[in-house]
Specification:
flat, 45% helix, Arc Repressor Mutant, subunit A, 65 residues, mainly alpha
Length: 65
């Protein structure tokens, strides 16, 4: 739902880099691997966590609690 603040495996903070990653991949048409490397996400576990995240918060927030 929301971007994980830390990597589930190693605990490195990756949540602060998600918006920049999405902007680079969608607007600048940069390759995901290259964008992650430039943002300092070099571990496989961190890449997996960020790459496989599905942002569903906009869809879920429509429904009242």
């Amino acid at each position: 739902m929301m971007v994980p603040v830390r990597c589930f495996t190693c605990g490195k903070v990756i949540g602060e880099k998600y918006e920049e990653y999405v902007k680079r991949v969608t607007e600048k048409n940069e390759e995901p691997a290259h964008a992650m490397t430039e943002l300092g996400i070099t571990r496989y576990c961190c890449r997996r966590t960020l790459f496989t995240h599905v942002d569903l918060i906009d869809e879920v927030i429509q429904y009242p609690v």
